[in-house]
TrEMBL record:
TM region positions: 74-93, 99-121
InterPro entries in the record: RseC, SigmaE_reg_RseC_MucC
Protein name (Swiss-Prot/TrEMBL): SoxR-reducing system protein RseC
Xref: Pfam families: RseC_MucC
Cross-referenced NCBIfam families: PRK10862.1 (NF008115)
Annotated keywords: Membrane, Transmembrane, Transmembrane helix
Domain of life: Bacteria
Lineage, top ranks: Bacteria, Pseudomonadati, Pseudomonadota, Gammaproteobacteria, Enterobacterales
């Protein structure tokens, strides 16, 4: 199970709205200055993602919760998103090349197959997200922000 901490934004009728911070893909690598991923992370906006998760336990805004998602669902969705357009691209390019015997036709087929694979993955992905095993779950709940109080005592109080 892949785990991540999130902050509660709101809770109503058994559904919690959670905010997850976007983390950069790398920060501690020795080759930070020449890393392409680090440069790409700086280009994009550093947002937070908001997701809705079912929770029978009442939650307070500002409370931290630990979310978990099964590795199989994450790997399955990544496979769908990356492989469906790639497979469509190669299949349609090969089909158009064999039917019309020209590079322009193969390029057109590749474009149509890639877009078609993307649309197929998008439609199929929407159906798969309705499955319970693909949904994130709350693993543990932290204390509400106002529940923890720290008191310090001076040495005179201990006598």
């Amino acid at each position: 199970m892949i785990k991540e901490w999130a902050t509660v934004v709101s809770w109503e009728n058994g559904e919690a709205l959670l905010s997850c911070d976007v983390k950069a893909s790398c920060n501690s690598c020795a080759s930070r200055s020449g890393c392409g991923s680090r440069v790409l992370n700086k280009l994009g906006p550093q947002n937070t993602h908001t997701i809705a998760v079912s929770s029978a336990e009442p939650l307070v805004p500002g409370q931290k919760v630990e979310l978990g998602i099964a590795e199989s669902s994450l790997l399955g969705s990544a496979l769908l998103v990356y492989m469906a357009p790639l497979a469509g691209l190669f299949i349609m390019a090969g089909l158009f090349q064999s039917l019309f015997a020209s590079d322009l036709a193969a390029m057109s087929g590749a474009l149509l197959g890639g877009v078609g694979g993307f649309l197929l993955a998008r439609g199929w992905g929407e159906k798969l997200t309705r499955r319970n095993e693909w949904q994130p779950v709350i693993i543990s709940v932290g204390l509400p922000p106002d529940a923890l109080r720290v008191e310090t005592s001076t040495p005179q109080d201990n006598r």
